[in-house]
């Protein structure tokens, strides 16, 4: 699945962050104008801040156009050049104090929010080594107890990395919940639609085939009416497990909605597709539903098949063909396959 969840969150974050950075840079320009720096330092700051202002504008536009990764890289560049630019300017003229050094911790925070943990860890290590070098080689700072300062930067870095890890776990969990059916644990129809479209696009280029099996539980309303909704839910869960065992690694099983399931069968031929479907029809009759605590002994399935690209070259065509065959199998007496 595409990482849409993370990109959407990152895009929203940048949409609020970049205007803040833009106005912060304008504020910094006014401080440079007011603060009594040398002419050389002032113009160095003017050039750097003007460049960063233009970059923040490009980053904001890129983010609005959905180019979240590119925008994130530009934002990270702004943070790095702003903080380390100040350190470099002050270090070059011998006026460096602790404040510019403290601001580099912001880079780790941004990295933890915008990039993978590996990037954040690498950035933390590089910055810690650079800070240690600066503290050792700067006479005005070397007389201070810089161990506590480096410990502070280290703590900020570690906390940012841990927070980033936890946030990503939450995003993954939220994303997983959004594509799973809560009752059966199968992937839901929304994810099936997305997966099928990707499958069509991919196999078109590879010139490969795949099959669709649209499955309906026969007389499911009767089970609900006679035995109740809880046994009906249990029946769906049992059938879900049965389908997963039947398909195994040969394809993917989804809950299509209500009492319907759908299977995407990889690298399928017509014979292979029919063979698997027939195995399901026969196999479900061998399931002892009473062993699961249900009051009925059997359930049957009706199926409609379609094969890419023979029965359709688009998602809509394939599903229309499978659905038409499923309807036919039910009209012809159920517990059978058409396609």
Structure description:
It is a single chain. By secondary structure, the chain is an alpha+beta fold. The protein has two domains: 4-179, no CATH class; 189-338, Alpha-Beta Plaits (2-Layer Sandwich). The protein is 69% helix and 9% strand. It has a five-stranded mixed sheet with strand order 2-3-1-4-5, sandwiched between helices. The radius of gyration is 30 Å and the shape is elongated. Mean pLDDT is 86; it is low at 1-7.
**Average residue pLDDT:** 86
Number of domain modules: 2
Number of helices: 13
Report strand order across the widest sheet: 2-3-1-4-5
Rg over CA atoms: 30 Å
The rough form would be described as elongated
Q: Structural class, from helix and strand content?
A: alpha+beta
Element order: H for helix, E for strand: HHHHHHHHHEHHEEHEHE
Strand content: 5-15%
- Roughly how many Å apart are the termini? 29 Å
């Amino acid at each position: 699945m595409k990482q849409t969840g993370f990109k959407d969150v990152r895009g929203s974050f940048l949409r609020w962050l970049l205007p803040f950075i833009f106005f912060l840079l304008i504020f910094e320009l006014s401080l440079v104008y007011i603060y009594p720096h040398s002419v050389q330092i002032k113009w160095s700051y003017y050039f750097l801040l003007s460049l960063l202002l233009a970059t923040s504008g490009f980053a904001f536009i890129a983010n609005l156009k959905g180019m979240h990764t590119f925008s994130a890289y530009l934002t990270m560049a702004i943070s790095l050049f702003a903080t380390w630019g100040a350190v470099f300017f002050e270090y070059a003229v011998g006026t460096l104090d602790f404040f510019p050094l403290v601001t580099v911790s912001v880079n780790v925070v941004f990295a933890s929010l915008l990039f993978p943990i590996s990037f954040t860890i690498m950035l933390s290590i590089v910055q810690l080594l650079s800070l240690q070098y600066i503290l050792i080689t700067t006479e005005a700072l070397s007389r201070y107890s810089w161990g506590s300062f480096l410990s502070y930067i280290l703590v900020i870095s570690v906390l940012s990395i841990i927070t980033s890890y936890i946030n990503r776990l939450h995003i993954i969990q939220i994303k997983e919940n959004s594509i799973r059916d809560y009752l059966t644990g199968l992937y839901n129809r929304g994810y099936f639609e997305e997966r099928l479209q990707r499958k069509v696009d991919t196999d078109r280029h590879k010139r490969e085939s795949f099959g669709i099996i649209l499955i309906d539980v026969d007389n499911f309303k009767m089970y609900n009416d006679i035995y109740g909704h809880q046994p009906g839910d249990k029946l769906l869960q049992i059938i879900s497990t049965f389908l997963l065992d039947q398909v195994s690694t040969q394809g993917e099983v989804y809950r299509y909605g209500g009492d319907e399931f759908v299977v995407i069968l990889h690298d399928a031929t017509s014979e292979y597709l029919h063979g698997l479907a027939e195995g399901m029809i026969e196999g479900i009759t061998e399931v002892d539903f009473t062993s699961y605590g249900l009051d009925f002994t059997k359930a049957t399935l009706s199926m409609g098949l379609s094969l890419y690209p023979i029965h359709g070259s688009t998602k809509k065509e394939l599903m229309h063909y499978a659905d038409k065959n499923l309807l036919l199998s039910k009209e012809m007496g159920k517990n059978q396959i058409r396609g």
